């Protein structure tokens, strides 16, 4: 029947399903001004990542969904921070380190007019050691006369230089053909995990206690599990048994081996966070209760929301809280984190071990919500009841109607509503609120998409 045909067509539309976990990750690395942002824009085919980088300015978003020849992947743009002259080496090395840890393939961008610099050579040594595919991109080859400059880059020992012009598009299609050919279907880490332990990212500002939490969890409950048959252990992750079950904590290398940079630390923190979230199914955002909830804390929570992963909030250093601070904290939570009041909350002390055992039920609850599927019949009954109780307000004498709806995917639960007009934001929030009241969804974001029929 016609409606069903529309439904199945739309659930295959990538726009409808916002988040597919574990798309392969392509990282872009290079010195400032070699044209990384221009290349990202070119690959995305849109102007969103427009080179708005004021030097030193932190950008929140560093991961983008991209598609080439019907292959979808995530681009991690490591170029959001332009360091001062002294910091360049450290910054580019840090980019490379993150990229090598967390990406499935790396584009290493060099300005072919400048050639390789000593900064480049430092990174090249790191890149030569990885077994992941590395593409040497010779940028700013705006026409054929500039190709000899690109050829000089053979000397870097990273294989064939690929001459491109990010600005004009020259050579980019050929490069992308190669790259998507080399990318795995799903991120290599995730692939090993099919049916394996659930993947947890511990995220949060520096010094909130992430590594303490990890150490306490690993130390007390012991058992860092051996390789699953036929897999190689990824040194950036650790498997830890908690509450009688094995969990995979992703990118623990990033927690243990901290990159110390005076400037741009925020940027690398959010780069790490985005990359870890790509690989995780659920995030534990760690907050330090001795500190006021900061913008950076909220930004990290919002990165989790954007990633579509399940969310647990751990309020750490509870051993240090007093009554005064406690009252302020509750007020700060109401003010800054009301939009995630559905996330399970645990008040812990990584130092004393207080209430660490509550983490596992919280993770399980969040993942269960994240996995939830509501059948189409049940969902439409829910919608009918909801509309009967509280119809959409009239807009210009018309009333947008919901024709029917369906859950297009889980992880996170993603619903599509077919309507005769655009639903108000307030009404969409009402639907989400009712969904939570009836079905819980504790710990999971809910995505509500609309298909407006003319
Ligand atoms: P990370 O940067 O988020 O990994 O933070 P760390 O785990 O390195 O912790 C930062 C500092 O906070 C260290 O000095 C820890 O000993 C301390 N810390 C972490 N968790 C707790 C806690 O629950 N209580 C107390 N009192 N201190 C803690």
From TrEMBL:
Q: Which residues bind GTP 1?
A: 30-37, 77-81, 139-142
Cross-referenced Pfam families, in alphabetical order? Answer: KH_dom-like, MMR_HSR1
By its UniProt entry, which InterPro entries does this protein fall under?
Answer: AAA+_ATPase, G_ENGA, GTP-bd, GTPase_Der, KH_dom-like, KH_dom-like_a/b, P-loop_NTPase, Small_GTP-bd
Annotated signal peptide: none
Q: Where is the EngA-type G domain?
A: 24-187, 198-371
Q: Which residues are GTP 2-binding? A: 204-211, 251-255, 316-319
Keywords of the record, alphabetical order, are:
GTP-binding, Nucleotide-binding, Repeat, Ribosome biogenesis
Q: Which family does it belong to?
A: Belongs to the TRAFAC class TrmE-Era-EngA-EngB-Septin-like GTPase superfamily. EngA (Der) GTPase family.
Its subunit composition reads:
Associates with the 50S ribosomal subunit.
Briefly, what is this protein's role? GTPase that plays an essential role in the late steps of ribosome biogenesis.
Q: What is this protein called?
A: GTPase Der
Which species is this UniProt entry from? Gryllotalpicola reticulitermitis
